[in-house]
Amino acid sequence: MKTNKTFKLLALAVGLSLAGFVHATEKPLPKDLPAYGPEKPLPTPQIQQRTLPNGLTVWVVPREGLPKVNLELAVLGGTAADDPTTPAISSMMARLLDEGTATRSSRQIAEKLQSIGGDYGAGSDADAVVIRASALASHAPALFELVADTALHPSFPAREVALAQANAMQELKVQESSPAWQAQRAFDHAAFGSHPYSRDSLNEAAVQASTPDALRALHDARFQPDRALLVIVGRIDAAQAFKLASERFGGWKSDGKKLAATTPAPSEPAARRLIVPREGAVQSNIRYGRPVIAASNPDYIPLTVADTILGGGFTSRITQDIREDKGYSYSPFSSFDAQRAGGSAFARVDVRNEVTGATLTELAKLYDSMATQAPSEEELTGAKRLVGGIYLLRNQIQGALTATLAGYWIDGLPPDFVSRYVADANKVTAEQVQAMGRKYFASKDQSIVVVGDPKAIDAQLKPFGKFEVFKP
């Protein structure tokens, strides 16, 4: 899931911020350090649930603390549901939801948000279109009214659409100039093939097709209450929250047309070798991985812990070998991203041209070691502490908890998963980590994607198979 990727990136940032300190204090630790303290699980949120007569699911978590209320409206059907000829067009629709409604201009929406101490954002990921908004608790009624207005009555004004199209075309140019973005696009195609998960980015055709009429039609087809969730978290009474939800969203009608479910993404490896030529590049951008599992798979938590040992933190095997021992890359890491219909696990390593082949050799050894080398007690304990600590830290933030709950619903997980996550991670054993290594980390099963200068690296790539030029 997307939140899992966020956890990994946060863990990486924390680890790298400590890197200089670690190097500066490479001395043995005192022998009589106290043991780790007892685990402090995330307090179980009291999630009150209700389904409105129109089918809208509502979750409410009253919470003390800042006088603030967070809302998240998630509607199933993201970029994976978009037509392949206009990939990610739903992201254009989402970014324009607050640019005008039947009764408000974009300026009026912005001014209203400012007057209630509010924030607003909307976007589309693979499986859902999501609106996230917050405001001072004293202005909760106005927040509900504003979110409902933008979600249910967007007008997609021609002027705002034209501006969004112009901005999107500029963004495409920036993306195409980024080797990191090129590498990720190629890896998604290597992992998912023709599955919709491989096309979560806009292209020129999708931008040009994003006319006001097309976006209105897409919105009307996609936004249906019986496939939507409203999460409400903050300093608000549950009765008031349900009352406001019913008042503002109860009149939302469904047209009865069902959106086809996304087909399961491939999970079996089909190792590919792809190169994205970038003449004159002085470094290679490497992606090394394969498709894996959906978030609802029982392997989700054991694989999260295993991936953390492999490359999810500063003391991980990838970082210690490729960064610390070999000095090939400053910030190598691995990432596991599980979604509703499938997922992927991959390493991201950017290295200078001269060590491209050597880095791939090291990656193969490290991946195979996950099956042949059981994690030490220190590795296992450290990984579980990192997984649990980042999770607990992040979900103390009210907006993050709101996003986590919505993300679980999108991915087909129950709301109580939020209270089980850390406890389940702490139950993972060394044997389970090795089992994940055998199932998902064998080097022979990993696809390799390299963005770089063929003239500088071709000879180094030959031992790893025949590389095809990737053409999107």
From TrEMBL:
Q: Using the record's annotation, list all stretches that form the Peptidase M16 N-terminal domain.
A: 67-200
Does this entry carry the keyword Nucleotide-binding? no
Q: Where is the signal peptide?
A: 1-24
Keyword Signal appears in the UniProt entry: yes
Q: Which UniProt keywords apply?
A: Signal
Domain Peptidase M16 C-terminal span(s) in chain numbering: 211-385
Identification of the protein by name: Insulinase family protein
Q: Which organism is it from?
A: Frateuria flava
What does the organism's lineage look like at the top?
Bacteria, Pseudomonadati, Pseudomonadota, Gammaproteobacteria, Lysobacterales
